[in-house]
Every structure is written in C-alpha cells, then in structure tokens.
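Re: How this chain folds, sequence and tokenised backbone to follow
Notation: Tokens come from a learned vocabulary of local backbone shapes, not from coordinates.
Start of record: The labelled sequence and token lines come straight after this line.
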Amino acid sequence: MTSLASTAVQERIPALSELVVDNIYSRQSEPWSALGDVGRQKSVRDVTYHLTYLVEALEADDPTLFNEYLAWVKVLFAGLNFKPTVLPDTLAAIRLALSQTLPADVQREVLGIVDAGQQELEGMMTVIPSFLDGNAPLDELARNFLKALLAGERRQASEMILTTAKSGVDVKDIYEQVFERTQREVGRLWQTNQISVAQEHFCTAATQMVMSQLYPYIFSGESKGRRMVMACVGGELHEIGARMVADFFEMEGWDTYFLGASTPQEDVLRAVEERQADLLAISATMTFHLGHVSALIEGLRKRSGRQKIGVLVGGYPFNLSKELWRKIGADGYAADARGALRAAERISGA
C-alpha cells in the first residue's frame, strides 16, 4: 500500500509538525502563548495526528479517510469550545508546510487530498445526534443501561440486561441494539466533551463485564467444527467491537479464539497455526493502524503452509473506504457482527 507520496510525508512528520505549529503561533501568538510549553506540545501532538491520517489516506488512495477524520476533529474541537477558525487555520498551515518541504513530484497528490479536505470542511457538522433516540423494541433498555453506567451503577446495569435475557430476548439483539449502540453513544459523549475519559473507560469495562455474564447463553449452541481467531492488531486498544463479533461466531457454533487488544503479529500468527484456524478476523478502529493490518495479512500469507486461511477485516476505516479491504489483501469485510457471519460463510465455505 505504501506510495512515494505517503512515504515523503511520513518521514517528515516530526519536522512538519513543528513547522506547522511555528507558523500558527507566529500568526496568532496571543491566544496560544498563554498556554505555555505544555500547550505547544499538545499542538504539535495534534498536528502529528492530522498528518498521520493524511498518510493513511495517501496509502489507501482514498481522500475519504482524511475527510472523515477532519469531520471527527471538527466535532471534537467544537466540544472543547475551540474557535471555529482553529481547524481551518491549522489545515492552511499544514498545506503551506507541505508545499514548502515536499519534493515537487509528490506535491500534487498530497496537496490534492488536503485541498479536498479544506473544501469539505465548511459543510461538516459540529453536532452529532444521539445514537439512542428512537422507539425500537430495546431503545428504552439501551437508554436505561447507559444511564446506569454513567451513574456508576454497574450492578443495576447488569441486572437489567440479565433480566432481559432471561425473558427470552435474543442475546444477539441485546448485543446489537443495546451494547453496540450504547458504546457508540459513549464515544459521541466523549467526543463532544460531555463525559470524561474515565467515564468512557468505566462504561466500556462495565459493558464487557455484563457481556461475560451472558456467556451461558452464548456457548449453548451446536458446534459447526469451524475455527476462527479474532485479533486486534498491535497498538489497537479498542477491543469491545471485536469481542462482540467473536461472541456472535460462538453463538453460531464456531470455535473462536479471541486474542483481545494490541496483539503482536507473531502471537497472532502462532495462534492461527496452533488453533488450525479456518478464518482470521482482524479488527482496527484507528486508521493509523492499517499498516499493522496489512503487515499481519502479508505475514499470514507467507507462513500459511496448509490450505488458504480466510482473512476477514472490520472496523472504522473499512466502514469509510469500502474497497480498502481489497487493497490490503483481505478476503472480505464486514461492517457489523451479522455481516461478519455472512462474509465468513462466503470466505470459508462454512
């Protein structure tokens, strides 16, 4: 996936980040100088993130990855009460720095993605609607579940889910309509500065605990004799979505081996071999981890000594760029757990 343009930006990121911040501070010294050295370090960090996402968009040859990142940042900055000019000014400074430092043969490609982002930025929203509005059968449960979590009432949250499962509601529906949607809402609340990182972490950990209490319902199906290894690539800390997918496969009779967050490549490959897996499912939420996904797939292809092992990918960047899974060498992609099951059937012939 690596291109000359992405490499040219990647190798210059530290210097570019400093140059961009110098430019911004020199033009608007008053609001920034009050933040001191710590504020400057955070500014450099933020520009580094911007440039890293630009690199991934270049590698994938898909401006959507950069545009969607900018849309996310715009909402984040609005929640932090940043002036509306901060992000446009930062983009302008990034463009200037790139035009000053990049070789001429890659400037057009790189600046084209930045220009596209600048053009789309004005029309991007600063407010995201709640994921829990509505009158679907489990909407009220989802709202009450999240309310309990935000209040720190883990036991109460657990009891309402277990009561629902005992009443006969399909556990898959609980996963999709309650767990998945409340996790998205937690992410929205953090992004818009309505809850803290600590609250976000508590909600996620408590949800995983409640999920584990549903395991008697999950491991009761008839085995299909198919084996799947589920992994989050090295550096990827967002594991709850991957765990939901693994649980769905268990409910469908697959023998799953869930490796959790930030699993090194060598350990994933060893697990695939030892478990004699039919399918490797890889999750990546952060776009800048796509390189790890690509490297893991390449490593699997080189080491697989028996029949071809199917590779299924999923996560936020793949939802944005629908052909991305093909570019990194996977056999399929799914946007959610049910879709993952359907894709697995096509890939592995289950």
In short: The longest strand covers residues 227-232. The two ends are 30 Å apart (CA to CA). The chain is about 65% helix and 5% strand.
